[in-house]
Amino acid sequence: xxxxxxxxxxxxxxxxxxxxxxxxxxxxxxxxxxxxxxxxxxxxxxxxxxxxxxxxxxxxxxxxxxxxxxxxxxxxxxxxxxxxxxxxxxxxxxxxxxxxxxxxxxxxxxxxxxxxxxxxxxxxxxxxxxxxxxxxxxxxxxxxxxxxxxxxxxxxxxxxxxxxxxxxxxxxxxxxxxxxxxxxxxxxxxxxxxxxxxxxxxxxxxxxxxxxxxxxxxxxxxxxxxxxxxxxxxxxxxxxxxxxxxxxxxxxxxxxxxxxxxxxxxxxxxxxxxxxxxxxxxxxxxxxxxxxxxxxxxxxxxxxxxxxxxxxxxxxxxxxxxxxxxxxxxxxxxxxxxxxxxxxxxxxxxxxxxxxxxxxxxxxxxxxxxxxxxxxxxxxxxxxxxxxxxxxxxxxxxxxxxxxxxxxxxxxxxxxxxxxxxxxxxxxxxxxxxxxxxxxxxxxxxxxxxxxxxxxxxxxxxxxxxxxx
Length: 469
What we know:
- By secondary structure, the protein is α+β, with helices and mostly antiparallel strands.
- The protein has 15 helices and 13 strands.
């Protein structure tokens, strides 16, 4: 092939997300789910693949899969079946995985502007632990296997290749994670492996409808890890194409510490797994009662909640998104908002910008915010009150009274401002000379004397009035 130094390329990205479901037991046996327990203590003949044992479908896992499918606007199959996916690997005790192949429980759907290709049920593999000088896969001296994870219920969500930037992939995965967490079907803890993401990455000529050869980045367990891995792979593919080479279809590992990519294996095709219908399991045909139960269990989802916060409460898009994506903050915000006299925007600022607010009772937080709005206490003093509320609880008004944090009276504040101006002549001269930032020295003097009780904005206003600015 000839070199192609000036061609413009367009990234094409699709994601495959594995979601561990928060059921009480595994997908096909009665072993309890666990994380961090002694290795190989949550196993039985079924999840270890002993001869002659029979799997049984976890009904709650099916319920969670239906909820996920409905949240992602998927087509729910009238009947889906399980298959055996054959492969030999130390983390796979049966030498096959029970999964769904050509008849998944959830078909085409959409989340935001990304189409969902499918979402299907399967079981997780065991966990391999690679030990050695560096702890990395390719330099490990030995490996061990923990079968506690084997058989954990999974839903695999596969997107269409609708993403075109690493950052967009990270943002969409954040939306999906927030949606799944809101559903309550998984704890979506990426550090513990409850949510794992693979990315299918390719480049094509800009404006072309023909997809390039894709590679797969495996098991990325953080948003930044995902974005950096895709960025690195796009640079690698572009260098190959511009030099006249061809990208090979393969599975890659991205090392976030070194920023390097390494090949794991040539990419398998479906026929390599020799799928055939699981002979020991019946098909899943959701009844109307099952569908109704799943639909009734759906809460308001993060995208809809963010839209409501924007349209009904007038919150900025970023603030609305933060409250909607972090459901615990959104719940705190809405409960506090039910109090009388609370301004939605002011309350949102306190919830999203003051970390201590998350540990305060909603009613107490609402009362404190109202006190600030009514200038009964300054914002600086209110932050002190917030710290007490977070650690000890109590009534905001009582804490203000006990600690003498109430707002300064108007006459008393004017006297304090006059003294601060008189005692900071150098700052006054600088202000009059056009150095407006010097006003900070006078404001600081006032705040020290009032022990933070004065309102900073009001103090600045009085100083400007006194100096006829």
